[in-house]
Give the backbone structure.
Amino acid sequence: MSYKQALSAIFCLMFLMPLTMKAQDSLGTKITYDLTAETAVGTGDYTAYQLVTNRHHILATRPNTAYLRGAVNMEHHFTPNLKLTSAVDMVASVHADHKTYLQQAYMNLQYRKFFIEAGSREITPLLRDPLLSTGSFAKGTNAKPVPQVRIGTDGFWTVPYTKGWLEISLECGFGKYMDSSYKKDQFYEHRDVNSTYTSDVYYHQKHFYFRSNPNWVVYVTAGLEHVAQFGGTQYSYDSEGNLITKTKPHNLKAFWDILLKKEDKNYYEHDAMEDWVYGNHLGIITYQISWNIDKQHLLEAYLDVPFEDGSGMRKGNGWDGLWGLRYNSKKQGVQYVRGAVFEYFQTTNQSGPLHWDKGDYPEPVRSQITEMVTGNDDYYNHLFYNGYSYYGMTPGNALIPSPIYNKDGFSHYRDNRIKAWHLGINGELTPRLSYLVKGSYREGWGTYNVPLAVKHHSFDAMFQGTYSLGPWQFSAAYAFDKGNIYGDCSTFNFKIGYHGKIL
């Protein structure tokens, strides 16, 4: 679809669709549409970090960018317990890596608390505050949604026969990355720094969480998120300029192996140095305690422990993790402080700087090694898949700078050993006017393999006001970056949105 065609389609959504539909409430069908225009203008090499982060990569990292967005949303109830929802969401951007594209296109069939869904969808975080938190290490909201088929529960489901004291949340999905052309272009444009790229990569994600009754004064939540990359074909050139390819399977057995995280203890004999565990796996283990101060005020403390292999799951990575405190008010009416989040994020340990495995060495050294040390987890980087990224953005915690910010086009993560402090606050000043303030300070030491000679640092902040008037919403924001990670960036942001009803 061309840029002009996308603009025409969006304006058709705005002006024509409401005229061609009549209300049919008796069918149990609800159709709405959303129209959005947003621009970011300022100085510096990038749009300021806080305006871009954890927004499903809808606003470009490039400076002085803008987009028009149109979405149609449908919900149909077959019975009180069975419903079908779907959406088509299209974006046309200027001065961005992606000019016209589908941001979302999905169908979801839900019976009571259980659903099956196919397509690309912006998924709201299960546990972390979508506006204030820095996000999950694994299933974050920083990158574009990956098209997938997924099944699970809508939020938490109360387990029968537990008298309401136990709730669980389950989800499992398989999909495919659609950024093969993007990675190919990056590779050939920056051959001086990139030795490989991998196309046609498949994706798997799942989570399992349980919590005690959330109506108790104190309740606990714990569980695990797991994501993986598998399949795909890696391309590289040998010293004589010959193209070398290496393909990983994506048959039914591969789907089963990735689901159970199958190991290959003899990987070095199978010419698969990257597959001591098939695929690229990472995730978090979460521990959370919540206190209902009263019926209208909630306080939570949580720890998300990252892992890239067994050492992380055994908490062999020291203080690494997302340590957080969250306050939330459920009180009706104007609340000057609706929510507040303070988080400390550390990834400097990574199970230590050493990785010592006989499979990493040829004979006769291999047979002489009897000990094993599983360190240097190198968060988000991988030998075969380059890195855990999608269109250059990390799908995890954005405090680790994404490869899209590498000015030389390098496709790996250069600065994954960081310490960061983050604060976010939002609330209402009047019934129509709300605000959002966020700020982060981080320090980075590069990677264990390539440490930085000079420590990186950055302070990033944003101030936003939003005014709601019926179906209209207007927002204005100012954000800035200071330091040597993104440089000194200063950005003004303006956004107009309209939510309309067709049926």
Remarks:
- The first helix runs from residue 3 to 15.
- The CA atoms of residues 28 and 78 lie 7 Å apart.
- The longest strand covers residues 218-237.
